[in-house]
Design a protein that fits this description.
This is Ig-like domain-containing protein. One of its GO terms (cellular component) is neuron projection membrane. By secondary structure, this protein is α+β, with helices and mostly antiparallel strands. Helices cover about 20% and strands about 40% of the residues. The strands form four sheets. Strands 2-10-9-4-5-6 form a six-stranded mixed β-sheet, with no helix packed on it. Strands 12-19-18-14-15 form a five-stranded mixed β-sheet, with no helix packed on it. It is rod-shaped.
Length: about 280
């Protein structure tokens, strides 16, 4: 009798567990079948890229099920991609997706400034749901502080500072050129370059410059337009006026002032002579 009670209790317990498992499985299946897709808002909604640098817009969709994800260009409502297929003749646009992943990434190769704007990640629910992403494509430029021409005396130092403007990420490198050649540190002593990627600056120092150091110096960062400056290294006996660019020398200014005073004085004497004759 005692054995039968234990057996009945075990059978009842097994049946209960089976029913609970079936109920849980049924509930999970129900939730998966009728759950609506939604966007994961942890992704970046605004992306800045430089001209020519590949840009990625990452859209993350949960509970997608059998729905399709499309990328739409907002300004003209042009369908760029559906799923992983590209629906535009512009092959710079591509949809990236890995099976089992929630991410649908729009890849724009070699973006131009005209590609700036809003792009929508759209899910084929009823009604459709979409999430906008803003792309900024900027022209990154280098700038050398100071005038476009630099005049220095022989024996002085050439000190050039280059700043990289409008770049979302620090440049991977900044090269200095003289003419068409990369500056050779081993060619002579006294040349140093200090580059700070985080501040996007690079400083070129050439100590005790000679006339051989004259030339066109170019700062060329990665993914940015280069900047140049012309350096003139002058011998000590050359006129001081040459070291100030286009500014006139004091002697030229005094000569011009004297000439102007002489002409005015002649006109004054002529006027007095005419009035005296009357």
């Amino acid at each position: 009798m005692y054995f039968k009670l234990i057996l009945i209790w075990l059978i009842h317990d097994i049946i209960g567990l089976s029913e609970s498992g079936l109920e849980q499985k049924s509930t999970t299946h129900w939730e998966q079948q009728f759950a609506q897709p939604y966007f994961d808002n942890t992704t970046r909604r605004e992306v800045t890229s430089t001209v020519g640098q590949t840009a990625h817009l990452q859209c993350r969709v949960r509970n997608l099920g059998d729905r399709a994800v499309s990328w739409i260009r907002k300004r003209d409502l042009h369908i760029l991609t559906v799923g992983i297929l590209t629906y535009t003749n512009d092959q710079r646009f591509q949809s990236l997706h890995t099976d089992g992943s929630d991410e649908w990434t729009l890849k724009i190769t070699s973006p131009q400034t005209r590609d700036s704007g809003i792009y929508e990640c759209q899910v084929s629910t009823e009604p459709k749901i979409c999430q906008g992403f803003k792309l900024n494509v900027v022209v990154s430029k280098a700038k050398i502080i100071g005038n476009a021409e630099l005049f220095i005396r022989s024996g002085s130092d050439i000190n050039l500072t280059c700043i990289v403007l409008q770049t979302p990420d620090p440049p991977s490198f900044i090269y200095w050129y003289r003419g068409g050649n990369v500056i050779n540190y081993s060619q002579r002593g006294g040349i140093s370059v200090v580059t700070e990627k985080q501040t996007r600056t690079s400083r070129l120092l050439i100590s005790r410059a000679s006339s051989q150091d004259s030339g066109n110096y170019t700062c060329s960062p990665s993914s940015s337009d280069a900047a140049s400056v012309v350096v003139h290294v002058l011998q000590r006996e050359q006129p001081a006026a040459m070291q100030h660019g286009s500014n006139p020398s004091p002697s030229i200014s005094l000569t011009a002032a004297a000439t102007k005073w002489t002409i005015n004085h002649i006109f004054l004497l002529l006027f007095q002579y005419i009035m005296y004759k009357r």
